[in-house]
Amino acid sequence: MAHRLSKLLGHLSPFPSDSYTHRHNIHQLSPTFFLPRAAEIEPDALAIYHLTSNQKILRRTYQEAADRARGLAYYIKKQGWKKVGILCPNTPAFLESIFAIAAAGAVNVAVNYRLKTDDIAYIFDHSDAEAIIVDAAFLKLLDGYRKTHPKVPIIVDTDTDAIEGELSGEFDQAVLQGLRVDKEQGSQGWAGLEAQCANEEDVIALAYTSGTTGRPKGVEFTHRGSYLAALANVAESGLSYDVGRCSYLWTLPMFHAMGWTFPWAVTAVRGTHYCLRTIDYPTIWRLLKEEGITHFNAAPTVNTLLCADKNAAKLPNPVRVTVAASPPTAHLFETMMDLNLFPVHVYGLTETYGPITKGYHMPEWEDMPKSEKYKRMARQGHGFLTSLPARVIKTGVSDGTIEDVHKNGKDIGEIVVVGNICTRGYYKDAAATRKLYSGGVLHTGDLAVWHEDGAVQILDRAKDIIISGGENISSVALESMLVTHPDILEAAVVAVSDSRWGERPKAYITVRSSKSITGEDVIKWAKEESDISGFMIPREVEIVEELPKTSTGKVKKNVLREWAKGGKHDLEHHCQEISRLLEDCDPIQQESWIRHLQTGQRNTSDLLNLKTTLPANHTIPCRICSTITSLSSIPDLHRTTELEENNTMYSTYLTPIQSIEESELSSSPSTPGPLNEDGEDFFLVQHNESPLSSREGSQQPIAIRTRPKYPIDSLPSELLIAILGKLSSPQELLNCMLVSRAWAMCAVDLLWHRPLFTTQERLQNIGQSINKPSAYWNYADMIRRLNLSNLTEKVSDGTLLSFVSCKRIERLTLTGCKDLTDQGVKMLVEGNRNLLALDVTSVQNLTDVTIEALARNCHRLQGLNVTGCGTITDVSLVLLAESCKYLKRLKLNKCVLTTDVAIDAFARKCPQLLEIDLHGCEMVTDASVSTLMRCLMQPKSYLRELRLASCSLLTDACFAFLPPDLRCDTLRILDLTACANLTDYAVEKIVDAAPRLRILVLAKCVELTDRAIHSISRLGKNLHDIHLGRCHKITDDALRELVKHCQRIRYIDLAGCTLVTDISVRLLANLPKLRRIGLVKCQNITDQSIQALANPTGHPDPRFARVTSSLERVHLSYCTNITIKGIHSLLNSCPKLTHLSLTGIAEFFQRDDVTEFCREAPMEFNEEQRHVFCVFSGDGVNKLREHLNKLESNYTALVDDGSMDDEDDIEVGQNISGLLQNSVLNDNDLIDFDE
Per-residue pLDDT averaged across 450-454, rounded? Predict the structure, then answer.
């Protein structure tokens, strides 16, 4: 019995069975256990967020991720593989493989895909990999390896967002097979795997070094060491600091030292992994601003470029950024802190599982000058939580002698560490392991000083110290000094030979965009402005376009030393050499290899291997190439009849080309057009485009003969699309089609991705092409966006028959097509499982039939706009909510039959809702809205926009029973226009629950008093727009409080607030960011207010002081105490003014010389309204300014070209309301989430 018990529980103890009872407090440590643990605790928590290779947003819960890892583990276990390679970017497959391989009892070998192909082949060969998991985009990197290892299985991951039943690729199939194996073996689940390893000292992963000075070495990560390092990172990086789960952004490559163990660390705290295939700074900033990222890791170089990106803006909440890979500068930390990126400074090596020290932030630093504070932060600090203290030992002593330097911040030595943080050694390299641990400590090779407080500070790598005239010069210190220059972006310093001093420093710098500087300027600045010693100042500074870097952002100083040896002449020689070797290749190939030489990614010896595979010279007929060689690149076209057949084919291409606008050819690197080009598609701001490379042409024969691929054919489809999208004319695009089939496919796909429907004739032509039986391409599958809103009344059910075969449409816009019925829309929806968004605004004939069809077919639907579809009922909407759980944007404006039943269903079934608009849903009551807020306004919610305008049944009870601890930091826009039953109490509860509101609309909430405004003041700097039209009980006292606390208000509407006087306007005029103000029917307003708006007295805080007014729109209709003198002053002091409304002011509408610059009154106005209408916009404002200046020559003409074609929001008589209905809320300029 005891023997059987020992076998069952043996995995919990490393000791023999007879000693188990004495070591019950021991179990084997393995980080693999973190995944099934997370899935058991919070199965529905979001584990993965990822933008896939086909540009879809993929989300997986911890239960889903654990199930997939389990399936892959059983598959690997059945194959008997003991070492499995990984060659992937930061994808869900990579993350799942890390856990699956270990759970199968195998070792993972993650390889840097940016290495040369022979290094990749060497690593997989050296590691004895028995199988390789590879991303489809990197399959070609294994060509060399597969020639010598043809029997090693390759598992390809396509990284696509595939729904159940449509899994694609060998990786997904392996997962499914593994799940079947588990089921066949009795559904043991994780219990049948090795989440709890048998021996914690076994190797869990081989992490290979970059091999800059030799072949890469495989560092052995153990289960125990990885477990402890991961837990240390949880604490040291603050992964568990935030309320709720952390949101970790994968900017660090997972292959680099196993992502510093963060795949395990983030999973341990059940955080969300935001995976990125590539580093794209605009995307990173978008995620930081919109997704609530709390943590990421990045090298100083990445952080420097991130902070310099045009999208950089101070974040509302601090983001913890673990910084390592190379010594950062104090200047970088200061820049990061200004953007609310809080640096967690760590230092480490691959041989130490990543970080081994941390610069701990001390409270007393806050009292120091900024420069000293950031210098302290830039130190490497003290030993990590699971490490013994880092030490600095003397160098130049006999081998094996370990003697510490003095802790005086001056004596230089080498950093060494011992303890749990050290890896086991190098795989199959005992000599290198002995050298690494010489003397019983791990030698880092980094030179540093040891400060009195025990903190270490790196001066340089031993090989990077510059010894000039007997003095040691730290390249790190020099680089830190150089980047404080306002025009320098990056700096790197290396030693060059000097006949007098032995060595001297030379600096390589990159310059910030739009800046200009010379090396002599930098040297002069260093002598005059810096505080470094004279012997340290570089005698030579070279400006380069880009510094050579490793895959993790470290500067390749070995390459810079080669540059320094040969100088520019050597580079020019290399470029001439490559041009000679590649003289038979196309210019793009030449340019690419020259670029690789300059950035250190290639050397001229590599060209000898390439030369034997080069094709004959060929032409690239597009404007990106200045050199055209010959036509031999175009595949031979068969003569006579075959040539005629090809001419027919190219004429088919011309069908969509001939009428395309130039703007339609513009493209982003990964999509065929700007995301927000169609204003009607309300969901287009989401980056869920599909790449054109995923399309497949039809199986029809084509006259282009199949030939071996040219190098130009190997361009990634995303890059090719980006190139083609920049062409300025249809003829250039046509020429590119002639290069090869691959080019032709991408060009045709680019044109058909979103057909342009401008006329009825064009609609018919495209419909005929789609249904043409002999077409060379399957055009129906190429159409992803179908927008017929330009034709409106010309579109009927019969029109849509031509598009029935288009079953891959993702975005369908039928706005204003009033003749459509359920029959037509249903035809397009049936069988289309790819539809992501549907806009049928004002298609009033639609009923529940259409919505039910959506629910049956479009389970991935993310956006639905049924504004004005008044016959849709709860029956279909409930079905939609139950079927479309990924719904993000929902507009039910004026769906008058919608009741609490439907809203309750959406609240409970659609947790990812970002925006919901119930404007005019008059049957919606407190019950469903309260449920909506409780379900969607959680700490980890997504809700950003909630519109409840004209929901007249809402009362304070809607908000009264919200949980007191409810806090939704994501909600930015709340519209409660005309919810007349709401009182001050409701506003107080709203501010408690949504403290980061930016746009709050309370127009026509007539019961609100000063108490409500005092509550709103608690929003502070978060508040940007506040609409208080017709809140006639508000006084100057409340507005004084609002101005005091909400200094970032851009737009305020006080229309009809009759108690407001000049006192309030004078206060509002000093708001530093005020752009728009509405004072319609504020009868107490006089010229004093206008003078205050024209000439703000200045803010008491000098940071916000401004000389001229920044106003853009001013609404003063029916303010009858205003004179032309005051308006004249306003015009001359507001150069940015583009809209001025003066309706109902006799001094203006009665003067013909003034009204000649007015806009035309709307057609629906009656005669009386037309008579008093007086609104100036765009160029009309400039003309009025010029006219008044001519009348009074003492004024200086102020002319500005800023014009905006804004919708007129003036309402006359009974139509006046707070800054003028909801049209202003649809103005994207007002909804700024980037600041």
Answer: 91
